[in-house]
């Protein structure tokens, strides 16, 4: 932990949720990886923009069979870990959850809360199922997926338009996107473009995802995607993981990416010119 | 004339230009078409958003061989005139000029000032050259073009990105577009998309236009395109003529129009939500 360390050591972690609040007083929080030492499983939840820090953070945690599970957003994180620490260690995971860290040591849980994991290099192994079982024993729904890359693209079908338009349209929530006929249309068209891009890269996704995602977004109400909160609070935004890398991979594969390209450059400009 | 009529009748028309100022005291200004009566040539310079008014304005001006020359922006104006008054009357023209009407009866000329005209239904006729000669006799450079539709698309290669991004990016001038690396990139990509769209519709335009237009725009400095001024002053913007109609024609022809579609919907939203 960085800025939250002292607070969490003194007061623990607090989770506010409609499913019940929770206070974890004896949270094991450390300032350095050396204090933790070699581990069976390292769960990486750093923002993707800080990946370079992993080059120093991870080595003290490694033993021969240490597994690296990245729960980060977007594309490129498994590749980064594989390049530095070996592809065979790497498992990827996706978090389907609406939550915001509102102040030091405090997390506000707004909805959902499942994890999907998959091997980076191929089909699920016994270790993949063992990790899923560990999550389930802790009360977290965790599904094992046969095709991690497909799951990543499937999640981008939501993240690219909703996180993106929330920033590009001047800092608005998902309800405002859906209430504006032009933004709702652009969100749908962006979803279609992401689905086509995924297909071009060999990941079959159904066209019905567009309608499914719009339907699933309405009940979220005035939810601010995490990238928007990062943007509004002046923190780094995972622009390359969520928009840049998918755009480049799809363009290189020959997919039609005009809308994605447009959105990516609008977000770049918004980040460059924000107050 | 509408709101400027009294002013121009009393004080005439004033033109401010680096090439010399000009004051036309005895300008023939009329409130109604009936006062003018049947004419050889009707030059239509109304904003395209007011085209419905032409259905009442033009009939009093018509005799058997009256020519209708539209100097309006974008696509769809010749078609509108052809539908209501017969295609054989219609000539289209493009104005290459930077100018703004700054107050009643006053025009500020900032640069350029040539006209290109062409027949709506085919190749130039003797009458096309006669009209060009009339303009030349009045000191206006006027070129006759064999393919009007191609000229319209060529002009859109500039108007779509520069008028469009000026509005969509929050009300900025062309120098600010060129100074922002993301907007400059989007402007170039939009130009490429318009060129491809024109080609898909059978109008051959060279790829070198992109570089030519960027080079021609730099000397304009902080020029505000006319659509931006309309937008900022709360007046109607020619969104369908400049963006909507080109977008729909290109999409129907199977061209890749993701960027144009995105820009069109951003402008629609900007118009809907402007203060």
Characterize the structure shown.
2 copies of one chain form a homodimer. With 275 residues, chain A is an alpha/beta fold. Chain A folds into 2 domains: 5-146, Rossmann fold; 150-273, N-(1-d-carboxylethyl)-l-norvaline Dehydrogenase, domain 2. Chain A is 47% helix and 17% strand. The first copy, chain A, has 12 helices and 7 strands. Chain A has helices at 5-11, 33-36, 54-57, 77-85, 126-137, 148-168, 174-179, 181-200, 209-217, 226-232, 239-252, 258-273; strands at residues 13-17, 22-24, 41-44, 67-70, 90-103, 106-119, 141-144. In chain A, strands 1, 2, 3, 4, 5, 6 and 7 form a 7-stranded mixed beta sheet that branches. In chain A, helix 6 (148-168) packs across helix 10 (226-232), helix 8 (181-200) packs across helix 11 (239-252) and helix 11 (239-252) packs antiparallel against helix 12 (258-273). The longest helix of chain A is centred in the middle third of the chain and has 21 residues, at 148-168. The radius of gyration of chain A is 19 Å and the shape is globular. The model of chain A has no long low-confidence stretch (mean pLDDT 95).
Briefly say what this structure is:
Two copies of one chain form a homodimer. Chain A is of the alpha/beta class and 275 residues long.
The outline of chain A comes out as globular
Oligomer: homodimer
Tell me the number of strands of chain A. Answer: 7
Q: How many discrete domains of chain A?
A: 2
Proportion of residues in helical segments of chain A: 40-55%
Largest sheet entry of chain A: 7 strands, mixed
Radius of gyration of chain A: 19 Å
CATH class of the largest domain in chain A: Alpha Beta
Topology-level CATH name of the largest domain in chain A = Rossmann fold
Q: What's the overall average pLDDT of chain A, rounded?
A: 95
Instruction: Report how far apart the termini of chain A are.
Output: 28 Å
Largest interface: A-B, 22 and 22 residues
Q: CATH homologous superfamily of the largest domain in chain A, by name?
A: NAD(P)-binding Rossmann-like Domain
Order of helices and strands of chain A: HEEHEHEHEEHEHHHHHHH
Q: State which percent range the strand residues of chain A make up.
A: 15-25%
Number of helices in the DSSP assignment of chain A? 12
